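One record is given unchanged without comment:
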Amino acid sequence: MLKRLFQRMGGHQPVELPGYTALGLMREGSMSSLFKAREQETGRIVAIKIHKPQARKAVEKLEAQYRDFTEGQITASFDHPNVIKCFDQGALAGVDYLILEYLEGMTLASLMAGDSKRLEGRRLSYVRQAAAAMAHVHSRRFIHHDCCLKNLFVTNDDQVKLIDFGLATPLLDRPALATRTGTVEVLAPEVLRREPSDYRVDIFAWGVVAYQVLCGHWPFESPEHHQTLSKILNVHPVPLDRRVPGLPVDVSNLIMRCLEKEPLKRLSTETTIVGVLERHRDVRV
């Protein structure tokens, strides 16, 4: 248990924390900082996520309008091999913190940008694991709202972990008014149209990720690359089996259904997606 939260960390040098020894800065973002640390009592290596005080107002606005839980409470509620584990969470001295499992590897975004050879034969496994993670999140009645390449982490032993629940909200029994949050490239059309939305925004986002991972192309490409929002609303993707020879037709059809612009035409559950992909565990693309 983190007894007393540090209020400030300067630079990239190791800093002593009550109960933890910081081993260095892993990532600096606009909303939070992520540090590698060692738990002094057990020696366990963890990642400590610290929300920046200046970003707290935006988080409080999200919590007041759309959820009754903090990011730490949401993350700690999951228990699945494809979802990052949260060991502890809370707020001290006005600063939110999460104690997370330490992951070695890289995001899918970094992997696709660099080590393309590592992807060969593993693409379908990666998207299947991402679907399993999302199915678990939905089973706990939450919506992630930002399933994208940078929020899917691939460990050194090829295990996919869904990370960053900063935008997650409870899964309500009725559609909620959509807001434009999350990574633009995976936003569902109903979100862009400011229409009520539900868990199917995650299904659409997963479909975008699966399409990208399997064929290396964003599904809504067009000559006018800068018109991102217009593409999502108006462009129909090239069927995936045309881009990926050897991909089972039912897998291609499944992913294309996830990319339907009208929510009612999309697949209804991530569990269905996982079921189809499980039948093709031995397929290497």
The longest strand covers residues 20-28.
